[in-house]
Amino acid sequence: MAGREAPLDDVDRRIVELLVADGRLSMNEVARRAGVSRATAYARFDRLVADRVITGFRATVDPAAMGVPIVALIFVNVVQGDWVAAQERMLHLPGVDWLALAGGTWDMVLRVRVPDIEHLRDVLLVQLHGMPEVQSTQTVFLLDERRPAPISR
């Protein structure tokens, strides 16, 4: 949000909350639920997009229905100074759907979704550990996932 001129107000936050909960809402419905005119809702929406508060829309899918029921977090330590190259390479590993730089014990955290344990073994032991930047890893299997309610203040 660099360059944002004013902090989000209650109307901005309400519009964001509504769209996070249901990105398919019409602007008429957003305006109605936010208690503003349609013109105001459109103007606020356009500004939120321009200011990169809203960065896109996407479908939320069931990973198991998509054929990738196994999910794991992989904590990674890399050779110091090589994190940029490591991050770029890790983003292209099969099944990686999220990556974050971390502070503390681990340098990075990857979320990997794969169809079976054999695929996870390949990603972890062959591809990830085959990277010269990778020093060590720890893998945690996720047994259940829940999404919290949409973000609010």
Keywords, please?
153 residues; alpha+beta; Arc Repressor Mutant, subunit A; Alpha-Beta Plaits; 2 domains; 4-stranded antiparallel sheet; 5 helices; 20% strand; elongated
Explain the layout of strands and helices.
Elements: H1 10-21, H2 27-34, H3 38-50, E1 70-78, H4 83-90, E2 96-101, E3 108-114, H5 117-128, E4 134-141
Antiparallel strand pairs: 1-3, 1-4, 2-3
Helix pairs in contact: 1-2, 1-3, 2-3
Write structural notes for this entry:
This protein has helices spanning 10-21, 27-34, 38-50, 83-90, 117-128, and strands at 70-78, 96-101, 108-114, 134-141. Strands 2-3-1-4 form a four-stranded antiparallel sheet. 35% of the residues lie in helices and 20% in strands. It has two domains: 10-50, Orthogonal Bundle (Arc Repressor Mutant, subunit A), CATH 1.10.10; 70-141, Alpha-Beta Plaits (2-Layer Sandwich). The protein is α+β, with helices and mostly antiparallel strands and 153 residues long. β2 (96-101) and β3 (108-114) form a beta hairpin. α1 (10-21) packs across α2 and α1 packs across α3. The two termini are 16 Å apart.
Task: Tell me the domain tally.
Answer: 2
* Global mean pLDDT: 92
Which stretches are poorly predicted, pLDDT < 50 over at least 5 residues? Answer: none
By CATH, the superfamily of the largest domain comes out as Lrp/AsnC effector binding domain/regulation of amino acid metabolism (RAM) domain
Main sheet record: 4 strands, antiparallel
- CATH secondary-structure class of the largest domain: Alpha Beta
Head-to-tail CA distance between termini:
16 Å
How many helical elements? 5
Using DSSP, what is the number of strands?
A: 4
Q: What proportion strand?
A: 15-25%
Percent range for helical residues? 25-40%
